[in-house]
Design goal:
68 residues, two-stranded antiparallel ribbon, elongated
Length: 68
């Protein structure tokens, strides 16, 4: 029992290897990858969520295919 309490003290509270702002960096990368689709207004992204919006069902599959 004592070792379990001891192990809990060493839970990481910061990211290792000086990784800071990883969520912001991930958002920047996603925006760069999907830049052309975001500029057309058919795609929006927020961290790990990508939303595809089309007016007609016909072109929706093509946009999703480009995103994937």
């Amino acid at each position: 029992m004592a070792s379990m309490a001891f192990e809990e003290l060493f839970e990481p509270t910061v990211m290792f290897f000086r990784l800071t702002n990883s969520l912001a960096m991930f958002q920047i990368i996603i925006n760069e990858i999907l830049q052309n689709l975001i500029n057309t207004g058919k795609v929006a992204s927020f961290i790990d969520d990508v939303i595809v919006v089309t007016e007609e069902e016909k072109g929706h599959d093509k946009v999703v295919e480009k995103v994937v």
